[in-house]
């Protein structure tokens, strides 16, 4: 998924990109991602005068660990994608920080635009932040580790509202 910026801009090329990318490397060593399907890429890439756009949709099936009980949560994530790329030019770098105002463009340092790292970044940004197996998942017991969705344990579960906890401290003396 590499595009020659100059050529695409000069000729106003256009193409539909349909690809399946193996992104398992992206999640290596992450305890919260149990499995990741391929990243389905469906993009329209087009060259314009001075910039290249990529727009469309990414989707991926992820098996995530529930943020409370660590059980498997299957998520189908669809990510709308739109990005405008332009070549980083030497002159603009001298313009100082004000030039950065125009951040609707992603500056590409080389003639060759490789979309892959940008798509991977989009996946990481769009990942569900705290997935839950169900919205009333009871989680694991903090004392004994029992999955409270499956079994109740004998531990005392003192649930303290943080606001009351603060009051409690106030009246301690
Ligand atoms: Zn859960
Ligand atoms: Zn317990």
Show the helix and strand layout.
Blueprint lengths: L1 E3 H7 L2 E8 L11 E4 L2 E10 L2 E15 L6 E16 L2 H5 L10 E4 L3 E3 L1 H11 L35 H9 L3
Parallel strand pairs: 6-7
Antiparallel strand pairs: 1-8, 2-4, 3-5, 4-5, 5-6
The structure holds zinc ion (2 copies).
The site of one zinc ion has 6 residues, from loops.
Can you tell me about this structure?
- The structure is a single chain.
- 18% of the residues lie in helices and 36% in strands.
- It is an alpha+beta fold.
- It has 2 domains: 2-136, no CATH class; 138-173, no CATH class.
- Strands 2, 3, 4, 5, 6 and 7 form a 6-stranded mixed beta sheet that branches.
- The protein starts with a strand and ends with a helix.
- Bound molecules: zinc ion (ZN) (2 copies).
- The site of one zinc ion has 6 residues, from loops.
- One zinc ion binds next to loops.
């Amino acid at each position: 998924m590499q595009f020659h910026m100059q050529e695409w801009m000069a000729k106003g090329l256009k193409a539909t990109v349909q690809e399946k990318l193996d992104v398992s490397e992206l999640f290596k060593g992450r305890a919260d991602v149990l499995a990741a399907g391929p990243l389905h890429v469906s993009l329209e890439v087009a060259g314009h005068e001075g910039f290249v756009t990529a727009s469309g949709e990414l989707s991926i099936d992820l098996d995530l660990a529930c943020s409370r009980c660590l059980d498997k949560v299957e998520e189908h994530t669809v990510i709308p994608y739109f990005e405008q790329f332009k070549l980083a030019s030497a002159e603009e770098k001298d313009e100082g920080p004000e030039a950065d105002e125009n951040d609707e463009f992603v500056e590409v340092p080389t003639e060759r635009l490789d979309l892959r790292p940008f798509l991977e970044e989009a996946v990481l940004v769009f990942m569900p932040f705290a997935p839950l197996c169900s919205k009333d998942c009871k989680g694991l017991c903090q004392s004994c580790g029992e999955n409270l969705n499956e079994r109740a344990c004998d531990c005392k579960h003192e649930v303290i509202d943080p606001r009351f906890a603060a009051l409690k401290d106030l009246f301690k003396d």
